[in-house]
């Protein structure tokens, strides 16, 4: 007997913020403003909050020369936010360290910021010169663009926020690649902003300075790169990490027409908690080769706790190729996003990629969401049951054989997780800054991954195999280097809660 369920959801989100960034996870969202830099010899405070209840939150950081992360438990404040305070890091100008935020959910899950491969693509804090506040009395926050980010030619907005008791705006100066653009900018005592038009592609540095007598004090710099329309988020959002972004330590070799990079890492831990000893090890490697118009990379991370009889895959691998941001192909573990109500950051092991032409774009993903998980004990029961069923002739005899198998007290029912497969696609019109898309996703459990015959379901006590089909439309626009975002999504889905008796297409 088939069971169907129809549903429709509408999501409309408008965000205007200069300080908050969100990382979506299957169990909730981490709200955290990444720290880009801190002055020498000064402590640093990390603060975050969550859209769901968490058991514990951690600041995971790794100083230069350290192979593994330090897991530092964050403290919950009265307002529900969490913070961690680090001091005496003994880092000098030019040093950097990596960090990411993680949290244990009350349902046993985990979310992180960044949301995808945080240990491989963490936030990075650069140690800068000592604060210029003591010289100028002005505190400056760089609002846009993000440091070292890639920005579309049509979306470049340079903005600095100023905090001081008094500021003489005549003494402020804004330069872009050593060109004085102060006269073209909007300059007030609270905000300096400039929206250049038709910048050429390439690297830029925006510098805000303040005159103190005959001297100019450098208040803040922002380095960024201008790219062609449609390419600003392709690498990051489609699961591809350029080789230049591989974490250090590592090595690289320069060729006449390209660069080869390699990075290796390892970690071993031994824990003794209430006389329960746990040992596990992790090891990984990244290699990549890049040219101005082509990039290819491969990454692999092994986890000794990966057990197909106990959990979903912990080991990760990914092979990616990128052709001038026009075509991207991935094989391995990716986290594709179509829209908030169709596909939003779910891990898929398989093939993904897309064609991105700026105006017309197509994305595709096909692979395994969950693998088959069944304990060794349950596997032995299932194998014995399969033999009994296969020995019987005719459907009635097979039913009687399966029922008789479980009348024997020595034979128990069994549990397990079906392998779940996903296939989906999204067609969109417009660049990332203004885009309309249509997407469809189908998820279906593979009954045969656990049950070779429907008669074996007599002894199965786990969740029934299901399938789900969702189709939707989405609209998104972003401005000011994604400081202002407007997203609207609508989707309709149909579900079959038990596909043993037939699937949606039947």
Any overview of this molecule?
This protein has 506 residues and is mainly β. The protein has four helices and 35 strands. Strands 1-35-34-33-32-31-30-27-26-25-24-23-22 form a 13-stranded antiparallel sheet, with no helix packed on it. Strands 4, 6, 7, 10, 11 and 12 form a six-stranded mixed sheet that branches. Helix 3 (376-391) packs antiparallel against helix 4. The longest helix has 16 residues, at 376-391. The chain is elongated. The N and C termini lie close together (12 Å). Mean pLDDT is 79; it is low at 1-26 and 230-250.
Determine the mean pLDDT. Answer: 79
Strand content: over 45%
Question: Would you count the extended β strands for me?
Answer: 35
Using the CA coordinates, give the radius of gyration.
Answer: 27 Å
Helix content: under 10%
Structural class computed from helices and strand pairing: mainly beta
Instruction: Supply the number of helical segments.
Output: 4
Distance N terminus to C terminus?
Answer: 12 Å
Largest sheet: 13 strands, antiparallel
Unreliable residue runs: 1-26, 230-250
Shape: elongated
Read across the widest sheet, the strand sequence of neighbours is 1-35-34-33-32-31-30-27-26-25-24-23-22
Question: Strands, helices and their partners?
Answer:
Elements: E1 4-16, E2 21-25, E3 28-32, E4 37-39, E5 44-50, E6 54-62, E7 70-73, E8 75-76, E9 82-86, E10 96-105, E11 110-113, E12 123-128, H1 133-136, E13 139-144, E14 149-152, E15 158-163, E16 172-176, E17 179-180, E18 186-187, E19 191-194, E20 202-212, E21 215-227, H2 234-237, E22 250-254, E23 259-273, E24 276-290, E25 294-303, E26 316-323, E27 327-334, E28 337-339, E29 343-344, E30 348-356, E31 360-370, H3 376-391, H4 395-405, E32 419-429, E33 434-446, E34 467-479, E35 484-496
Parallel strand pairs: 4-12, 14-21
Antiparallel strand pairs: 1-35, 2-3, 3-5, 5-9, 6-7, 6-10, 8-9, 10-11, 10-12, 13-15, 15-19, 16-17, 16-20, 18-19, 20-21, 22-23, 23-24, 24-25, 25-26, 26-27, 27-30, 28-29, 30-31, 31-32, 32-33, 33-34, 34-35
